[in-house]
Model the fold of this input.
Amino acid sequence: VSEPGFEEWVAARGPRLLRVAWLLTGDAHLAEDLLQTVLARIWPKGPRISGENPEAYARKALVHTHASWWRRRWRGELPHGELPERAAPADRFAEVDLEQTLAEAIRALPVRQRAVVVLRYFEDLSVAETAEVLRCSEGTVKSQASKALHSLRSRLPAAVAVDGGDLGD
Amino acid sequence: VTSVTDHDAYGAYDASDDSDAPDDRIPGPGSGSVPEAQEHELRVLLERAVPQLPAPAQRLASVRERVRRRRRRRAAGVSVTAVIAIAAAGMLLPGLGDRDGGPSSAASSPSGPPSGSAPASTPAPPVTAPPGYTVEPFDELARLRVVMPQEWNGLIASDTPRGYVSTQSLGLPKGGCAHQLDDFCTPLDRTLTPDGVLVQFTLVAESDKVGKALLRGDEGTVAVQQVLSACRAVGGTEQLGVTVVRPPGATASDGATDSTDSTGPGGSTGMPGSTASPGYSMAVVATACLSHPRGAQEARVRALLNSASFS
Done:
């Protein structure tokens, strides 16, 4: 990303990257903080990564920066069995309820499984691409994805329906 | 649409068994097998449920500021490394080797000059700071000197023998810092942000009641402490401390030394700019309150605490 085009690139791809960050952190404020941290790292490296896919570079940086936050445990997250406040199950709150339910389920995943879910099922990366980003084997990606799906299936209630189906049994 | 492995997708199958598994993307529900359909449903769910968050108006300004800070920290990091290396060699700061490695010479050898300190008639060498750092002078605290990053802030609480340095802007509260919870004043304009630091330096006399309460046995060694309520109240999550004992006999005004013993009864209460009463030593208790510090920041604070010395 060259410096002149940085702002345009952020304007164009920022919303998507922010959603990736939200999935990794489960929190809007942490997501913005994570994204800004990554953008601050990308900006000075613009000329050096101009030959690469900048979005892929940013995605990789998001995952690894979040993992480093997790290891250092300064992220400020507190483990909760449930979110302290939940929307009423009324129709007009359905979207908020869905978002909170998903955030709760995602945050319950170990950090690596969370990264696999984001890369495989939100960013639609292949197994090989996911393995490359996470610097692990393809088999590990598959097993982590399997465990994550199993965990999500148990945490997302049947009421969270998708196109008539759901992730529950 | 790609094929599905023979494994149960929800079983924790052995990763080594997947060498022949297809490297697949699954754009649609596929042939209706349970794992494939559920993967598709998860994709749809994520796309639907992950919120479209608004971008803050000042995002790019914040990013620019972070870039500037990173550059400063990178420069400072080199300097911190240099400070630690030099200090460890005992070349920059007198008595530092004692504080890092064991009991201070002043505490363990109260009747004699500490090893590494200047001879009785020789003033201590001036403390110098590497590039990117500055020496914060606390003349009111028996001429304490602290090496800190240039962008940090310093403050002296004139109503008490206390000094402060912080990553954030400082301002004395109404009523000053004389009567504070836990004897830890927090003259911050705002609570600590993540990675923020506030350090309090309190001048105490060895015989002073407050001094005795503050002296927690950390003489000479930077130690992790239990987080005080006052620290926690401003967002602190970790606390470090060290007690820097002024070499016995040194005067607060000019750094000269005398031959008195530091273990005698009674003593000065350590008023600003005071001279040590004969027979009593003085010390500075340094307490650092840190909010979710990163590794580099904690190392920076330890270096700062280790740099505290009397000129």
Remarks:
- Helices of chain A lie at 3-25, 28-42, 46-49, 54-72, 94-107, 111-122, 127-134, 138-155.
- Confidence is low (pLDDT under 50) at residues 74-90, 161-166 of chain A.
